[in-house]
Amino acid sequence: MAAVLSADQIDALVNAAEDLGEGRHGVEELLSQMTKAVLERALETEISDHLGYELGDPAGAGSGNSRNGKTSKQVHTLQGPVEVTVPRDRNSTFEPVIVPKRARRLGKVEDMILSLYARGMTTRDIGSHLEEIYGAKVSAATISRVTDVIADEITQWQNRPLEAVYPIVYIDAIWLKIRDGGVVVNKACHVAVGVDVEGRKQVLGLWLGTQEGAKFWANVLTQIRNRGVKDILILCCDGLTGLPAAVNSIYPETVVQTCVVHLLRSAMRYASYKDRKAMAKDMRPIYTAVSVEAAELAMGHFAEVWESKAPGAVLAWRNAWEDFIPFLSFTPEIRKVIYTTNQIESINYQLRKITKTRGSFPSDEAAIKLVYLGIRNIETLRGGELGTGTQGWHQALNAFAIQFPNRLPI
């Protein structure tokens, strides 16, 4: 600031703000006038560069083009609405950059609209916010058009090439209310999160379906394979019926692992509140067992204790047993990273926070748009990705290399 304005000049600006109004109002009015002055000065510089001579310079005589008055228009800036005069040239070849033709929003206004939308605010809420804070009246239809500009970005994102190998892929779905054929229906937004060999997590894509099922996930995995994924070592899910067969039809060598935490929660639902701590203690030897045989012994003890008290809990374990036991063949380093699907549940939790503000979405495209912006916002907050590798991940990667020889890229 000192390199641009002297102390006396800053004092003069402070005095000017006080003359324009008290407190914040005077500062805002001053910033608005300064924005107008800077924009108009920049436009005059642009047209001088375009014509090749300054205003009033005799060198412009007979040049074939000249200034042709000015037009006035209002643009929305972060300082609120500003009325600027834009110079024209006689040949209509002047294309201003600082205030482009037909542009009504400048600076970070569009980015701010997208950011507010990504945080779950409706178009009408955003319009009210802009009017309240900046005094700018922007219609809900205009805000909707601003958010529509990311349609091409979504298409590119949904079809981008993926890594050749993912040691782990987590899958889950969130339910959204979407208007379809004049009726609001529940649709499952399928989310897949992959962890690459560096430990970086990224959402592989979003897919809408009328229900979450093994057949739909098979279609999702087919698209993932077509985008370059040759191998998935472990796919973690919440115990969806028929999923292992569907996954192995696409990736024959992939291990499908039921989330242990989901299984524990499912069993705990059948215990009274006062018995839950005791049940959790009795289940621990099952999922910490060193082998399938040891787990079966622990399961037998668990069944003896809880068959009469909570038969549903015992049944939950028995029904999920075949999908659970692959977990026991892994080393502690691998077990630690596949024990739970929290990697994707934390993302889905944040997505639910922004989607629950909507009674329903008018279309599939509107639903995908908001969920995508939510993911982009999460990635921005986390530095461009959903997380990076840690020391624990590097230890797990070494274990993966031993457990799955010749399947990880060197």
Summed up:
By secondary structure, the chain is of the alpha/beta class. The chain has 16 helices and 7 strands.
Write up this protein.
This protein has 410 residues and is α/β, with parallel strands linked by helices. It contains 16 helices and 7 strands. It has helices spanning 7-20, 23-51, 109-118, 123-134, 140-148, 151-158, 214-226, 243-250, 260-268, 276-287, 292-306, 311-324, 332-338, 342-355, 364-381, 391-403, and strands at residues 67-77, 80-89, 165-180, 183-195, 201-209, 231-237, 255-258. Helix 1 crosses helix 2. The radius of gyration is 30 Å and the shape is elongated. The two termini are 51 Å apart.
Strand content: 15-25%
- Note the gap between the termini: 51 Å
Ranges with pLDDT <50 over ≥5 residues?
383-388
Overall mean pLDDT: 81
Instruction: Output the radius of gyration.
Output: 30 Å
> What is the 3D shape?
elongated
Largest beta sheet, briefly?
5 strands, mixed
Q: Topology as H/E string?
A: HHEEHHHHEEEHEHEHHHHHHHH
Assembly state of the chains shown = single chain
Q: What is the tally of beta strands?
A: 7
Strand order of the largest sheet: 5-4-3-6-7
- Helical content, roughly? 40-55%
